[in-house]
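A quick aside before the break. I want you to see a complete sequence-to-structure record at least once, exactly as it would be stored in a machine-readable document. Don't worry about memorizing anything.
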Amino acid sequence: MKIIKHPYLTSLALLLLSVVNSNFANAKSLRVVTWNTEHLAAHNGKGCKARDTESYTQMRQYAQSLDADVIALQEVDSLAAVERIFPDSKWQIIMSSRTDSPSYTCRENKQASTQQKVAFVVRKPILIKQVNHLSELAKAKVDAREAIHLQIEQAGKPLNLLNVHMKSGCFVENYEVSNKSNCAIYAKQAEYLKSYLAQQNLARENWLILGDFNHHLTATDNHFRVELLAASDYKNKKDYSDGSPLIAANNLFIATDGVVGCHPKYPLPIDHIVTSASMRRALVPSSVKFHNYNTEHMLSDHCALSAQFNF
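That is the input. The structure line, written in C-alpha cells, reads:
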C-alpha cells in the first residue's frame, strides 16, 4: 500500500498535537502518586520478589486504577521492568542514572537480587521541562539510591517533583543520636536533601517531594520532620528584591499527616508526599490516601499513595 504524505495533513497533525500538549500544560487538576513496587524485575521469576505473568497483569491493572498523571516509583530494576507495568505508548519514563550496584542473595528466596532504582512515569503528552539526577544521595553507600528532580509544566507554571528513596533500617525518632550504621548513612542523605531544598525558592515555586522516606515523618517529634521543615525556612533576600515581604511560616508541609498506612503490621507510613505552600493550597485533602490491593496477596509491601491538586 502506497502512503501519501500530504503537507496540509502533516501541518494539521502538528497543530492538533500542539493543542493537546497545551491542554495538558493548562489542565486544572493533577493526580500524583508515589509507589514502591518492591523489587520490580524485568523478567518472571527473578529477584527478591519473584513474580509470574498473572502478578504483572495484576500490577498493570492496579496501576491503571490509580488514574494518575505522574507516578514516582521506587525499587525498579530497569527501564524494561517499568515498561511491563507502564507501556511507553502511554507513558514517558525517566529512569535513575545510577550505575548498577553489586547483586546480593535475597534473604527469603535465596535468589540473586535485582537493582533497586527510582523512576518517574509521566502520562503522555505532559510536557517535561527539566530532569536533574541527584547522584549525591547514592554516594552515601554503594547500593544507596539517587533521587530524581523532575520539572513539568502544569496550569501554565513549572511544577517541581523530587522522587526520593532514603536508606532503610533507621526507624528511629532521631538518627543523629543513633549508633546504627544505617542511621549514619541516613544522616548523610538527610543533610544533602536539606541542603538541596534550601537552595530552592520554596516560597515562590511549586514543589512536591515524594517517595519512600523510610521514616515516620507524621510523628511530630520525628527529628527529620523537624529538620526538613526547618530547612524550608531558608531565606535569601535577593529572591525578594522586588520588595515583597519575607514569608516567616514554613514553606514545606507534610501532606500525609493523619494518614494511616496500608500495611497491617505498620500503621505509621514511611511513604510520604511533602508539599510547598502553593501546592498545599491546591491540595484536595481527602485525596491523600493509600490504595489497598484488591488481591489475595499484597502485590508489593507498599501500597501506592496518591494526592490530587486542583489549580
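Two observations worth writing down. The mean pLDDT is 89. The longest strand covers residues 29-40. We'll return to this after the break.
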